[in-house]
Amino acid sequence: MNEPFQAVIYLGLALYAAVLIHAAMSDLRRLEIPNVDSIILAVGFIPAALLAGVGAIDIAWAAGIAVGMLALGIFLFARGLFGGGDAKLLAAVVLWTAPADIPRLLAVMAILGGGLALAVLLARKLAPRAPILADVFPWLSNSEPHLPYGVAIAGAGLCMITRSPLLAALN
Fold it and tell me: Are 137 and 151 in contact (CB under 8 A)?
């Protein structure tokens, strides 16, 4: 593969990482993942995959799996178990993950989510004695048990970036 294509693929992966970090920070701060983050990830995958030499069939499989993950996320959202932004972000992250690595992605996401839940429980306990926590994370003082799960989704996506099919295409 020639160098301009490699540079574009690396740029695509850097954009992927930057958008995931933005989504995580937004969710952590406001319990909201901007739609534009998921849109950038989903739309950006197609040219990056094509430039990396990923075949149309593999791109179609990735899209189908992502749609399935979005459907599952919407189902969980309808049951009050998952945020709408979380569902969209997870579907977009699945696009960038090799199908064989999706169970690993979900396992990493679950581990990070468990750690996140413990951290939020601790922060809720400390918030009355550390008002800066409530200032930085106003949702901590809510009585509803919100969890910025986009942090775990983004963290898992970042952990899996080294196994991206786009990087595999460069080797």
Answer: no
By C-alpha distance, which of 27, 19, 41, 102 is closest to 68? 102
d(CA 97, CA 156): 10
End-to-end CA distance of the chain: 9
| b/e burial code for range 96-135 (CB count within 10 A of at least 16 → b) | bbbeeebeebbebbeebbeebeeebeeebeebeeeeebbe
Which tens digits make up the pLDDT trace of 112-139? 999 999 999 888 888 788 888 878 888 8
C-alpha–C-alpha distance, residues 109 and 90, integer Å: 10
Average pLDDT estimate for 159-164: 91
Start-end of H helices in the chain: 3-30, 35-51, 56-78, 84-95, 102-126, 131-136, 150-159, 165-170
Task: Give the pTM.
Answer: 0.93
